[in-house]
Amino acid sequence: MRLHSLTLRDFRGVKDRTVQLPAMGTTVVVGDNEVGKSSLVEAFALVFELPDDSKSKRIADIQPVGHDVGPEVTVELTLGGRELTYTKRWLKNRSTELSVIEPDGRRQTWTGREAHNEAERLFNENVDPVLWQTLMVSQGQSLILPTPADAEPLISAVTAESGTPVDGASMPLVSAVEHEYLRYWTPRGRSTGEFAKSAQAVASAELRSAQASKAMEEVVADIRRAERLALDLDDLSARLKDHLVSVEELRERKQATDEILLRRDSVRARAETARARLENHTRTRLDRERLLADVERFSQTATELAELRTEADTVAKKAAETVHAAEAALAEVVELKDDRRTDVQRAEQWVSELMDRAELDRLTGQQAELADVRARIAAASAVLDGIKVTDELAASLEDARAHVVEARAALAAGVPEVLVRRVGADVVSLSGTGLDAGGSPVPAELAEDAEVSVLVSGELVVGVPGQVEVTVRAGGEAATLRARVDESVRREKDLLKRAGVRNLAAARELLRKRDTASAELQEARRTERSLTAGGDPGERIALLCARLGITSSDEAAAEEDVPTAKNKQPIIEDVPGQMSLFEEFEEDTFDFELVLPEPAVPGDLAGAQRALENARAELAAAERLLTDAEFAAAQARKAADEDRSEAQNARARAELATERLAAAVAELEAARAVLADEGVEAEESTATAEVEAVLEELTAVQEQADAAGADEVAGELADSLAVAQRLQGERDTLRDSLRTTEGRLEQSGRDGLATRQDAAELELAAVRAEHDNLKRRADAARRVYETLGRHRAEAQTKYSEPLQTRIEALGRSVYGPSFRVWLDDDLAVAERELDGSRLRVESLSTGAQEQLAIITRLAISHLVSTGEGSVPVIFDDALGWSDKARLRDMGALLGRAGDHGQIIILTCMPERYEYVPRANFIKLQ
Amino acid sequence: MDESITFLHSSDWQLGMMRRFLGPDGQARWGQARLDAVVRIGEVARRTGARFVVVAGDVFEHNQVERQTILRACEALKRIEVPVVLLPGNHDALEPGSLWTSAQWTAHKPEHVTVLTGTEPLEIVPGVEIVGAPWRSRRPVSDPAAPGYAELGPAPAGTRRILLAHGQLTSLSGGMSEVPTIDQAALEAAVADQRLHYVGLGDRHSTTEVTERIWFSGTQEVTAPEETHPGNVLAVTFTADDIAVEPVQVGAWHMVEHHVELYDEGSLIALEDWFAELPDKERTYVRLAADGSLPLPLLSRLDAMVDAQGEVFASVERWAKFWTVRPAPDAADLDSLQLSGPARAAMEELRQALAAGDEEAGAALTLMHRLARDAG
């Protein structure tokens, strides 16, 4: 099909416009928005689709708004070799006209509905709708990749070029095969649906069947067990029965032999009696023999022991004497030790006395010093007691003195001071009141050349007797001043009186004396305290004097006596023969003599202490001596005791021997009284004969018992009874086991286990048959699916090759030599490879997708261009997502595509296509 | 004894038996049919005036059948109005745990039913005594009939003695039996010297006359296609000096084994006809063996036919061991499908694989053929 021209009248916004289109090459129809580019495409579609009387809304939509006119379209085209001119007007003055010039030049025309039908028929006959839809890209659809598998012209072209016929007729089969496959298998090849369920059912049924079989096997095993138990039980019962018969036989035998055994027991009893009697007689004989022997032996023993007794007595006596001597020696040593202890005590007493006397001396000195100190205290105290001046009193005196001086000064200043000097020989008398001559008495008369200055606070009368008498009277103030002087003087006097002094200076002297006495008193008291710190020396002196037997008053005399007494004591050092006491000791002789030296009395303490140490050494030596003497005495006593004991023993044994001899003789006499010595042996012989006779009888009975097996029968019977008991036990155990097993079987019978097993196997067989059937079908379905799939894939590869080759050829002019594509079953591009990177088309950029869609369409157009079914390629706006470089390449591509067919591009952006070589641009106004 | 006496001899009821080839539904109906046949024995007893009924072993399929089976058996036995004597057989031996000693049986056993548990003669009616050799174990060690009569002397004058025994005859087993068999010669000798007057045998499911007085009654209802005369009860009549044994059918089911060779449409049609002519289809089990090869369309038709007959009959089993029908695709088959391209190539590949002996390819080819035909 080739479009030649399209004329639109009163179509949407187009009043009247004709667009002429070249039959070959690329035409770019340029127009701004709303000038009707898309209306051209729409008009072409409507003119073939809708008759002029169509009530479709699409017709109503194309009528210009507000104009009651009929939209009209005229299209001129070549279709299957025919030249068609087809005009249709809708709504107003509806009409359809078709003019066809056949290839042979014949011309035919149709009008009205016939024209529509004929045009529709011609279009449908010559234009493959799939191809038409594929190659006509409406506005906004340029991104959609074409799926042209069902386009017949494409199929023809592909088939012709690849040599592989399209297998469209097989598609229902393919679908059926796939459907069949998916009944049993998932796309990933795992069993599914009924088939998978049947496998599960088989597994479940197998499990149930196995369980049922196992239960039944246990039942069968129980049956076998019970059978075996029953057989064993029968066998055992038979054995038990036989055995009980033999037990009964043994019992009878035992009854028979019991009589022999009774007899044997009787003979045995008699034998025992005879044997006892014989033993009696034998014992009697032996006793008699022993008695005779005893008498002889005891007699000899008594004689020997009497001699021994005499000898022992002698030894004991001698030992007693030895003890006596030892004890005498011991007594002497004890006495010596007591004397030595007395010496020590005396020395200790003397040392003590000497120490007391030394202490007495010291205390006496201390007492004298104490008396002296106390005298000093008394003296100081006396001084202190005599002094009445105190610090306060002295201060008052100082104050009173100051007041007096002050009052006098005030008086002197406030009263007339009258200086009276005797210049002549005449007596000058002075009298008056309130007079003061500065502490000195106002003389009644003045001596020659004497003068006196008098303060007059009252009235002074100076007269030269007879010659003159002058009276000086003080003023009013004078009396007050005078009173103050008198008062202060009187107070001072009182204080002096209290202090016991005549004046202040005396008071000050007394204070100094008081301080001295006070210091001395304190010192003396300290000394007194230190001297009396250990108690009153007087008491201790009294104590010591009492202890020493002197009075404190004649202490001096005692002191005088002591050296005398001391001088009377002998010197105790160098005591001769101190150790010779021990050396002279001899065991056998105790008649030594003690030489006791007189103790010397030393006069001094050191000598006394040395004497004491010597006395103590002497005592220790005496004590050692005593220990030795005690030991010797003890030894002697012990020896004497032993000798005495020995003598007593000898005496006792001798007496016992005598007694025993007497007893043996008495016993022998008694025994002989019962049976004379001759009768003893005779009786024993008789008893021996009797025993032998009974034993002979016993042997005979025993032979009888042995012959009858009497002793074994009882044992055999006991063994046999034990066996019977064991067999009965075994039988009871078997019986119990059998009952238990039978009980289980009874239960399994109630449970219908065999039926269950059969049912389980029945079910298993059924599901297994079903599964086998399904498996056969599933395997067949898979085999078919896989085989067909493999062949289809191979065919697909071959079939898509022509289109694939063209797409790749066109694409490489844009993208370069690494550009490759893969097509799917619908011949749609599924994947693209560029520079080694292979991607699904969905993953490509928008621009790349659009470019690939354009390339694919151009490739399809190229493939079908040689056939009759070719159609124009129409792009209603495209390449909106390409950059400038790509626009250049795509432009070149679109230009080349025009060499093989009719390419029509509608756009409002002509610059996108400025690189299309040889493009025919048509601009719509 | 001049009076003639009739009794019924049956055996191998094997109540509780299951047949896996019948499927659950078929099994349920067939199980019921076996009980129905017992009830029909009661009807035959009434009709023939039989004085008693003997069952020579294997009354039950197992000793451990479910309770329902025992109770239903008791119900069916109640429908027999004359005394019934049952003999334990190898399936329901008087072994430990036997149902004959179970409370389930003893509590529900009808009064007129006697189980032979010993070898002592039982006078079932005056002038007729029954001796039996019950199985005491599933594994007897010697002639299982011998204990029933070996120690017996001649029957008392005027008394007919019937031996009930269960097991294969040495003469019929062909020496293949795993368990000891019954000495036929000894039996015949006992019959000959009138120690026995009739020997009622069980174990063989087909009615079989061994001698005039020694019979296998066969099972009351067929249990396998191999059985030649199943589904009968024997009406045995003692007359003055003679005996008459008459098989009476009580079974309602059929089990059929059928072998066919299939090679063309004609042979297929013949099989269809064979199916069509069989009676009592809902009570018939068919074990079908087929050999040969069929073009793909016919193979599909065969499958469809067998599947359809399976719905009509109690069960139609393709006997796997003997089911060797192979697809025989020819060019015309494939052409008729008008396949081209990959589909045709795939089918061709499968055809060649089949020709090379790939059995699975046959099934695949058949399937693909069917799918292509349905899709076309």
Structure description:
The complex is a heterodimer of chains A (925) and B (376). Chain A is of the alpha+beta class and 925 residues long. Chain A has 20 helices and 19 strands. Chain A has a 6-stranded antiparallel sheet with strand order 2-1-4-5-6-7. Chain A has a 5-stranded parallel sheet with strand order 8-17-18-3-19, sandwiched between helices. In chain A, strands 9, 10, 11, 12 and 13 form a 5-stranded antiparallel sheet that branches. In chain A, a hairpin with a 5-residue loop joins strand 5 (82-89) and strand 6. Chain B has 376 residues and is an alpha/beta fold. Chain B is built from 11 helices and 15 strands. A 6-stranded mixed sheet of chain B has the order 4-3-2-1-11-12, with helices on one face. In chain B, a hairpin with a 4-residue loop joins strand 11 and strand 12. The longest helix of chain B has 26 residues, at 23-48. The chains are: A alpha+beta (925), B alpha/beta (376). The interface between A and B is large, with 57 and 51 residues.
Q: What would you say the CATH architecture of the largest domain in chain B is? A: 4-Layer Sandwich
| Helical content class of chain A | 55-70%
Q: How many separate helices of chain A?
A: 20
SS elements, strand count of chain A: 19
Q: What is the CATH superfamily label of the largest domain in chain B?
A: Metallo-dependent phosphatases
Order of the strands making up the biggest sheet of chain B: 4-3-2-1-11-12
Query: Total domains of chain B, how many?
Result: 2
Q: How many DSSP-defined strands of chain B? A: 15
Unreliable residue runs of chain A: 554-597
| Physical arrangement of strands within the biggest beta sheet of chain A | 2-1-4-5-6-7
Termini Cα gap of chain B:
82 Å
Biggest β-sheet strands, sense, barrel of chain A: 6 strands, antiparallel
Q: Largest sheet of chain B, described in full? A: 6 strands, mixed
- Report the structural category of chain A: alpha+beta
Roughly how many Å is the radius of gyration of chain A? 89 Å
The count of helical stretches of chain B stands at 11
What proportion strand of chain B?
15-25%
At the fold tier of CATH, the topology name of the largest domain in chain B is Purple Acid Phosphatase, chain A, domain 2
Q: Which sequence of SSEs, written as H and E, runs from N to C of chain B? A: EHEHEHEEEHEHHEEEEEEHEHEHHH
Greatest interface and its residue counts? A-B, 57 and 51 residues
Region (Disordered) (chain A): 733-754
InterPro entries (chain A): AAA_GajA/Old/RecF-like, P-loop_NTPase
Domain Endonuclease GajA/Old nuclease/RecF-like AAA (chain A): 1-51
Keywords (chain A): Coiled coil, Exonuclease, Hydrolase, Nuclease
